[in-house]
Specification:
The complex is a heterodimer of chains A (528) and B (336).
Chain A (H helix, E strand, L loop, with lengths): L3 H17 L13 E6 L25 E3 L5 E3 L7 E3 L4 E5 L14 H12 L14 E8 L2 E6 L41 E7 L3 E6 L12 E6 L3 H9 L5 E4 L1 H7 L4 E6 L4 E5 L10 H10 L2 H9 L3 E3 L22 H10 L3 E2 L5 E3 L2 E2 L1 E7 L3 H16 L3 E7 L1 H7 L4 E6 L5 H9 L18 H12 L3 H17 L3 E7 L1 E6 L3 E2 L24 E2 L2
Parallel strand pairs in A: 1-10, 1-11, 18-19, 18-20
Antiparallel strand pairs in A: 2-3, 4-5, 5-7, 6-7, 8-9, 9-10, 11-22, 12-22, 13-20, 13-21, 14-21, 15-16, 16-17, 23-24
Helix pairs in contact in A: 1-3, 5-7, 10-11, 11-12
Chain B lengths: L1 H44 L4 H6 L8 H10 L6 H13 L5 E2 L4 E2 H36 L4 H14 L3 H15 L17 H35 L2 H8 L4 H23 L1 H14 L5 H10 L3 H29 L8
Antiparallel strand pairs in B: 1-2
Helix pairs in contact in B: 1-4, 1-13, 5-6, 5-8, 5-11, 6-8, 7-8, 7-11, 8-10, 8-11, 9-10, 10-13, 11-12, 12-13
Classes of the chains: A alpha+beta (528), B mainly alpha (336).
Chain lengths: 528, 336
C-alpha cells in the first residue's frame, strides 16, 4: 500500500503556498453557540475500555476524577477527593448523586463497579487492563459509594480514576469490547453526547442538557476529520473551521488575522532506547557519552521550531513539583569523546570507534509513518557520529518494531502529566523487563531508581512523594539507560473573538480536538 | 418475410446473451471464492498484526500477559483457513461478521458507505463517457488541427498523472483559488445531509474521477473514429456529398462505438482504484477509503467483502460490455 500521507503531504506542500494567499473570510452564519473544529485523527472507537480518551477530557464521559489543566486532579463524578486507607491499598470514593447518563438513567455505584470490573475481566478484552493490574476488587459499599481494593499500596491510584464510566447496562454481557455498540454509540455522563458520526468524515457532539456541571453553553460542536496537515491548514485559512491541531510551524503561519496560535506544554517525550544487554548500547560509557553528545537544544530549535523543551529524564518541568531541575546532562561532545577514549573505544580509520573487535555501531528504529520521530532519529544519528558512534537508521512498522525492540534501539514517544509514576515506572523499573513489548524496552536496571520509584508508589503525602521522584531522576541521570531528547509542545490554531473560557493545559501524548484549547470547552461561553 | 428473419435472429441473439450471462455467472463463483481466499492468505502473510490495530497506542503500556489473553479472546490465533471457513459459512448464512477496524458489523459499514461510493463511481463513469465521446469526436473531426493536437497532448499527459494529483490540482484551483466548490466531505462542515449539499460536494470528486478516467477513452474514441472515416461506407457517404456532421454522427460514430463499450467495461478496475484515491483525498465517506484502513488492520471480514465487491464490479463490468457488444453488433458472437 502506498504511503498516502507522505504522498499527499509532499504534493500539497506545493499548494500550501497558494493557500496562504487567500485572506481568511468571516465565519459564515457565525452562531457562537456552535463550533466547528478539524482533527487530524479519527478515533476508531469511543469506548473507554478500548482506550478512548483515557487521559481524561473525554467529552462523552466523566471519570471519577478529572484533570484540572495543571497536573492536579479534582473530583468529577466523585463528590470529593478519594480517601486512601490501609497504606494506599484501599480507596473509598463517595459519588455525586445528581448525575444522569445520556440515556436518562441515573448514575450509581454499580456503574463504576461494572466499568472497572469489565476493564480487568479478560472476557471483555479491554485494551486498558494492563494499567489497572493493581486492582484486586471494586465493590459498591452503598448506592453512592464505591471501594477499590488494590493488591499493592499504590499512591498514584487517583490517576487511574479519570477513566470514563459506562452505564452498567452496557456491560451486562461479557463480550470482547471490539464488538460493543458503545464503540460507535457512546453512552456516558459527559458534557456532550454523540449526535452523529459519519465515519471517515465528521462527528457532531451535542450538549448534554442534564449535565451535572450545567448544560454546556456551546450547544453543538462539529469535528471534521482531515488527516493531512496541509489540507487542514488551508481549510482553516479559508475560514472554514474555528480551530484545529497542526504541526508548530504550520500553525504559526496560519494563526494570524482572526486566528491565533497556541502552544501547550506536555509530558510527551521523545527518547532513544539503548538496549542494556547489547555490547555497544549496554556499555555505561557509551550510554553516558551518547547522552552528552546529543545536542537537545539544537533539536528543539530545528525540529520543533523552538516549541519544546530539552528532556533528560521523563519528568518535564511542566510537572512542577515532581521535576528535578538538577537532573540534567549538559551537552558536551568533548567530554563524550574523552569518556569513550577512557573506556577503551578507539577511533578507527573511518572515524568509527572499536573496542576489542566490536564496532561502536547500532541501529535505531523509528515508525516509518512518523516524520517527527524520523527527524529525531536522524539528528541523534548525526550527533552520535560526531563522537565516533555509528547509528544506522531503520524505518519500520509497528509489528516489526515489536519483534526487534529487544535488540535494536528505537525512538520512543509517550507521556502523561497525571502522575510521575505513569511517566517513569513502566519505562524504567527493572521489574517491568520482559513483561510487555514497550515496558522497559531498554531493559534498564538501576537499584536506586527502582527503590525510589517503589517508595514513590507507596507514599501518599505529596511533598514526600515529590522527594522520591526527584531522587529517582537524579539516580537516573547518574546512570542513563536511554537518551531522552525532548518534550514536544502541541500546537493549535483557534478562532479569536467569539468565545471566553480558554485555559492553557499541560497535555499528555494524546492531542487533538478532545484536548488542546478545547479540553474544557464545556465551560466556554459565547462572547457578548 | 423480412420481419420473420428478424424475429428469428433476435431470438437467437437473446439466447446467446442468456447463455453468455449464465456461463459468466457460473464462472464467477469459483473466481470470487478464490479471490476471497487469496485475501485471507495475503492478510495472514502481511506484516500487519491485527492485535496492534485492536490495541492502537494502548499497546505501549500493555503487558505481554494481557495481550496474549486478548489475542485468545479475539480468536486471533486460529489458523487462517479455519477463519476463512468461519467467514464463508457466515456469509452463506447472511452474517457478514464484525469489522475490527471499524468496530462495527460489516453489514452496517457497507450500508452506510456503499451508497456514497456507488453515487461517486456512477457519476464519475457517466461523466467520463459523455466527456470522452464529445471530446474524442471533436478531436477526430478536427484531425491534425490545433484542437486535435491540444486534446491529444493533454490526453497523453493525463494518462500518466495519478488521480490523486488531479484531485489535489482541482482542489488548489477550484476550491482554494477560485472558491467555487467545497474542498472535501459530504456536506459543509456544519450542515446537515441534504441533496443540495451532497450535489455541491459531489461535483469536484466526481469530476476528478471522471476526468482521470477519460484520457484512454478520449484517445480511443478519436482513434476508432479516424479508422471509421477510412471505411467504405463513410468515404462513400462523403463522396455522395452528405454533410460532414451527418457523416460523423450517423455513419462513423456507430462503428466506433462498439469497441468503446468494451473499453468502458475494461476500465472498471481503474475506476475502482481511482475511487480509492479520490475518496481519500476528498474525505468522501465511501467503501473505497475503508479498503485502506481494513488492509492496514488485517481486518479480514471487511477486507474480504470489499475485495469481493470490487471483483464483482469488474466481472459485471466486462459482462455488461460483452452483452452490449453482442446486442449492438450482429457480427460479434457470444463466447463459448
Amino acid at each position: 500500500m502506498l504511503n498516502r500521507r507522505t504522498l499527499i503531504s509532499s504534493s500539497l506542500a506545493a499548494f500550501a503556498v497558494a493557500g496562504t494567499a487567500c485572506a481568511a473570510p468571516e465565519r459564515s452564519g457565525g452562531d457562537p453557540r456552535t463550533m466547528l473544529l478539524a482533527d487530524g485523527y479519527e478515533p476508531s472507537s469511543l469506548n473507554p475500555l478500548l482506550g478512548y480518551a483515557r487521559a481524561g477530557a473525554a467529552k462523552f464521559y466523566d471519570g471519577l476524577l478529572a484533570f484540572d489543566g495543571n497536573g492536579r486532579l479534582h473530583p468529577a463524578l466523585a463528590e470529593e477527593q478519594p480517601t486512601p486507607t490501609d497504606g494506599a491499598r484501599t480507596w473509598t470514593v463517595r459519588l455525586r448523586r445528581d448525575v444522569r447518563f445520556h440515556d436518562g438513567g441515573p448514575f450509581r455505584a454499580r456503574d463504576v463497579v461494572a466499568t472497572y470490573r469489565a476493564a480487568v475481566d479478560p472476557a471483555y478484552a479491554a485494551t486498558i487492563s494492563s494499567g489497572l493490574s493493581m486492582l484486586e476488587e471494586v465493590e459498591a459499599v452503598d448506592e453512592h459509594t464505591v471501594r477499590f481494593r488494590l493488591n499493592i499500596p499504590y499512591a498514584p491510584w487517583p490517576a487511574r480514576m479519570v477513566m470514563g464510566i459506562l452505564p452498567a447496562s452496557a456491560l451486562a454481557e461479557a463480550v470482547p469490547q471490539g464488538e460493543s455498540p458503545i464503540n460507535t454509540q457512546p453512552v456516558g455522563t459527559g458534557p456532550y453526547r454523540l449526535a452523529e458520526w459519519r465515519r471517515g468524515e465528521r462527528m457532531v457532539w451535542r450538549a448534554h442538557e442534564n449535565y451535572w456541571g450545567g448544560t454546556p453553553r456551546i450547544s453543538e460542536i462539529t469535528v471534521v476529520f482531515a488527516t493531512d496537515d496541509n489540507t487542514r491548514a488551508q481549510r482553516v485559512q479559508a475560514g472554514e473551521f474555528d480551530g484545529t491541531v497542526l504541526p508548530p510551524l504550520l500553525a504559526e503561519r496560519v494563526g494570524s488575522g482572526s486566528y491565533r496560535t497556541v502552544h501547550h506544554d506536555t509530558a510527551d517525550y521523545r527518547a532513544i532506547t539503548l538496549p542494556a544487554d547489547q555490547p555497544v548500547t549496554g556499555d555505561p560509557a557509551v550510554r553516558m557519552a551518547l547522552n552528552l553528545a546529543a545536542n537537545r537544544s539544537e533539536m528543539v530549535d530545528s525540529l520543533l521550531g523552538g516549541h519544546g523543551e530539552p528532556a533528560y529524564t521523563p519528568i518535564p518541568e511542566s510537572m512542577g513539583r515532581f521535576h528535578e531541575p538538577e537532573a540534567k546532562l549538559e551537552f558536551d561532545q568533548r567530554r563524550a569523546r574523552q569518556l569513550l577514549d577512557e573506556a577503551g573505544w578507539r577511533a578507527g580509520s573511518d572515524g568509527i570507534r572499536t573496542k576489542e573487535g566490536t564496532r561502536a555501531s547500532f541501529t535505531v528504529m523509528y515508525f516509518a509513518d512518523d516524520t517527527l520521530r524520523k527527524k529525531f532519529a536522524q539528528a541523534f544519528a548525526s550527533d552520535a557520529g560526531k563522537v565516533g558512534v555509528r547509528v544506522e537508521l531503520a524505518g519500520v512498522d509497528r509489528s516489526e518494531a515489536a519483534e526487534r525492540i529487544g535488540t535494536d534501539a528505537i525512538v520512543l514517544g509517550g507521556g502523561s502529566p497525571l502522575d510521575p509514576d505513569l511517566q517513569m515506572y513502566s519505562g524504567l523499573h527493572s521489574s517491568m523487563i520482559g513483561t510487555g513489548t514497550y515496558r522497559n524496552p531498554a531493559k534498564y536496571r538501576n537499584e536506586r531508581v527502582d527503590s525510589a520509584l517503589d517508595a514513590g508508589r507507596r507514599t501518599v503525602e505529596p511533598a514526600e512523594r515529590a522527594r522520591h521522584y526527584k531522587a529517582a531522576q537524579r539516580a537516573y541521570v547518574a546512570d542513563p539507560g536511554l537518551v531522552y531528547l525532548a518534550f514536544i509542545q502541541h500546537s493549535y490554531v483557534v478562532r479569536t473573538g467569539m468565545w471566553d473560557g480558554y485555559e492553557p493545559v499541560v497535555e499528555p501524548h494524546t492531542h487533538g480536538t478532545t484536548w488542546g484549547p478545547w479540553w474544557n470547552v464545556e465551560k466556554w461561553t459565547p462572547k457578548e | 418475410m423480412n420481419s420473420r428473419v428478424w424475429t428469428v435472429r433476435r431470438r437467437s441473439r437473446a439466447g446467446a446473451v442468456a447463455g453468455l450471462v449464465v456461463r459468466r455467472v457460473v464462472l464467477a463463483v469459483p473466481v470470487l471464492l478464490l479471490v476471497s481466499l487469496a485475501v485471507f492468505l495475503l492478510a495472514a502473510a502481511s506484516p500487519f498484526d491485527p492485535i496492534h490495530q485492536y490495541y492502537g497506542v494502548r499497546i505501549f503500556d500493555a503487558s505481554a500477559a494481557d495481550v496474549a489473553s486478548v489475542r485468545e479472546q479475539l480468536d486471533l490465533d486460529r489458523p487462517v483457513l479455519a477463519r476463512f471457513w468461519d467467514w464463508l459459512s457466515g456469509i452463506l448464512s447472511g452474517d457478514l461478521g464484525m469489522s475490527r477496524s471499524m468496530r462495527a458489523p460489516v453489514a452496517d459499514v457497507l450500508a452506510r458507505r456503499l451508497p456514497w461510493t456507488l453515487l461517486l463511481a456512477c457519476c464519475g463513469l457517466a461523466l467520463a463517457v459523455v466527456f470522452s465521446l464529445v471530446i474524442g469526436t471533436v478531436a477526430a473531426w478536427r484531425q491534425g488541427g490545433w484542437t486535435d493536437r491540444l486534446i491529444t497532448a493533454v490526453g497523453h499527459a493525463l494518462e500518466g498523472i495519478p488521480p490523486f494529483v488531479v484531485a489535489l490540482l482541482a482542489i488548489a484551483l477550484f476550491s482554494l483559488g477560485l472558491g467555487w466548490l467545497p474542498v472535501a466531505g459530504l456536506t459543509d462542515a456544519g450542515s446537515s445531509l441534504g441533496p443540495a449539499q451532497v450535489i455541491e460536494h459531489l461535483v469536484l470528486p466526481a469530476a476528478v474521477l471522471g476526468i482521470s478516467q477519460s484520457p484512454w477513452l478520449v484517445l480511443h474514441v478519436r482513434q476508432s473514429l479516424l479508422t471509421a472515416f477510412t471505411e467504405d461506407h463513410v468515404t462513400g457517404a462523403r463522396a455522395r456529398g452528405v454533410r460532414e456532421r451527418v457523416v460523423v454522427a450517423r455513419h462513423a460514430l456507430p462503428t466506433a462505438l462498439l469497441p468503446f463499450v468494451t473499453l468502458i467495461g475494461a476500465r472498471i478496475p481503474e475506476l475502482v482504484t481511482g475511487a480509492v484515491l479520490v475518496e481519500e483525498v476528498f474525505s468522501w465517506p465511501g467503501v473505497a477509503s475503508a479498503v485502506v484502513t481494513a488492509a492496514r488492520a488485517a481486518d479480514y471480514p471487511l477486507l474480504a467483502i470489499l475485495t469481493l465487491l470490487a471483483t464483482a464490479a469488474v466481472l459485471l463490468g466486462s459482462l455488461l460490455a460483452d452483452v452490449a457488444a453482442v446486442l449492438l453488433d450482429p457480427r460479434v458472437s457470444a463466447d463459448g
